[in-house]
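Interim report to the steering committee. The following record documents the input for Putative MFS transporter (426 residues).
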Amino acid sequence: MPSLMPPPAPWRGRLIVLAGIVLVGLNLRIAVAAVSPIIEVVRQDFAMSATQVGLLGTVPVASFALFGSLATPVARRLGLEPTMILALLLSMSGELLRALADSAPAFLGWSVIALGGLGMGNVLLPPLVKRYFPDRIGTVTASYSVAMSVSTAVPPLVALPVAQAVGWRWSVGMWAVLGFAAVVPWVVVVAQSVSARSHLRDLVRRAPRSERPAVLVRAGAAESRLVWRSRLAWALVLTFFANTTCTYVLFAWLPQILADAGLGAEVGGRWLAVFAILGLPASILSPVLAARMRNPYPLVVGFAACWTAGLLGLMLSPAQGTALWMVLLGIGPGTFPIMLALIGLRSRTPAIAVALSGMVQGLGYALAVVGPVGIGVLHVATGSWREPLLVLLGLVGLLLVSGWFACRPTMLGPEPGRQPSPEPAA
């Protein structure tokens, strides 16, 4: 019996968009990963206090939350593709200006702008994938997830040698070149769209809303209301929050945990790089598999098992079996690309995907802000890493429960040709 599913559309004609998506993925973690390896060099110029260094560690998640929440209303007004251009320009400007900063507060302030642009990019990518690649959501999500892994793993290897050779300002500012490269495909996409150009012209001229043409992708208030009342959306938020908090806590504290176990700070830093690199295979496989499965919850269970075993090993025997714990912990965050893929897979329209992505990532990162700081406070209060790691194990339990609801094969939004009916409220 022949398949009723239409064959995938050819890549030809969409390659410029694919290039734009992958280039944005290459930018999404650079502003975070390029600074931490050279923070001691920066401190020599600015006499940055320990508090300011701590704030610098919190800025990424906070910026992702704040600017990620702004991405949906901005895209509602400008359109999705012009908003992506704006996000990339913000990030580029922040990277260049913090490279020219003359004080620690200025460096922190421009870091917020650089990371804020990336926070908007985080939110905009899943609906762009839904808009242009509805037939290849898993494959394209895997492509930009791999690019994100590369943007996490490469800068720590390059930043310090460049800073030692030509100064930390070049080491921080040189990544703006990648931001410029990512802008180019989206400018081409907007330039080729008559409706997008007309809409932007009318915005500048302040034409009445009723006279403006439709832009490439916009999310309205109706889509936002539908998403915020959705049980599926809230399950995605909680799963995203739990996975992100565990990941960022380890980015912040893993070297210290291993140093306190007697392995030394330098060894801890190397294991942190291994932890980041090991996310690459999961980024390739998990969204592709999720797109082919009716319910990808078994994948979530597998990644949660890796989280659990790795955290237990880190808690009970950090200095023995360290390589095994790092492998397991590196695989654990594979839930993250699954959640990104589900934003597109569970949305009936790109407009719903815009609203859903804004809620999941904006609120998910906002909840995760307290993770690294709270774990640090708990460690100081208890004098041990046992209680903080137990908290992370509790978050893995939350991931398992919320992931069951997030992965169920339901769609968000009315079927084509039908009036919307309210989904059960959260």
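DSSP finds 20 helices and no strands in the chain. The committee is asked to note this result when reviewing the revised timeline.
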